[in-house]
Each structure stands twice: as structure tokens, then as C-alpha cells.
Amino acid sequence: MRTPSGRKALSAERLLRTARGVFATLPDAPGHDIALVDHLISALALFGLKYPSLLQFDHDCRQETTTRANLKSLYWVARAPSDSRFREQLRQKLRSRFDLCLIPDWETLYRSIITRLSSRSSTTPRRAAP
């Protein structure tokens, strides 16, 4: 498989796919109508779309077609969890030591980004000063 280089390796889409892949490796309890990966990606979208609050994000997910379209096309989330579902899921995961389980995966994601940044800077030719 060919590895992406330069801009494609550092594109928002590529980084979000990497984050989604990391989130997908986390264990999820069966029986939920919205998967854990969708909860986590929705939380990432909350920050990426620069919402001031979880309640505003929830309101726009329910009312605005633009927000729903952005979630679907940029973050691959068909249905975002409500603010109360976010809080409930977070409480459950923190009780089950989810925070300890997540730390190595964030490190993996961070290392992946740093590796791509450093490989891009080492392969990009430098321009001579005029």
C-alpha cells in the first residue's frame, strides 16, 4: 500500500480518519444505539467546528441541516449523541478506567502526526533566498 506524502498526509481528512481509526480500537459496550467511536468523533467535531457549548452543539445537530451535513461529510457521523448521552457515556467510561485506556492511543495518534510532519519537512526541498 502506498503511503501518502506531503499535503495529503497532513490533510484534515487524513488526520480525522487516523483519529477515527484510533477511536475504533477502543472497546465499546454492546447495546448502545450510538457507537463509542461516534461519541468520540462527535466530541472532536464539537471542538473542530468551534462550538461554545455542548448544549449549542446538540441544538444545532437537531435543528440545522448545515451542522448535520458537516458531521456526515467531514466526520462520518450519521447521528450525533445528545448532550445528555455524551455526559452519560463519559461517566460510564470514566468509571471503567476509560481514561487509562485512552492515553496510549492518544500517544499513538500524536506520534503519527509528528512522524508525518517530520517526514514532510525532510522531503520538502528548501528554496534559495533571493
TrEMBL record:
Organism lineage: Bacteria, Pseudomonadati, Pseudomonadota, Gammaproteobacteria, Chromatiales
Record-given protein name: Transposase
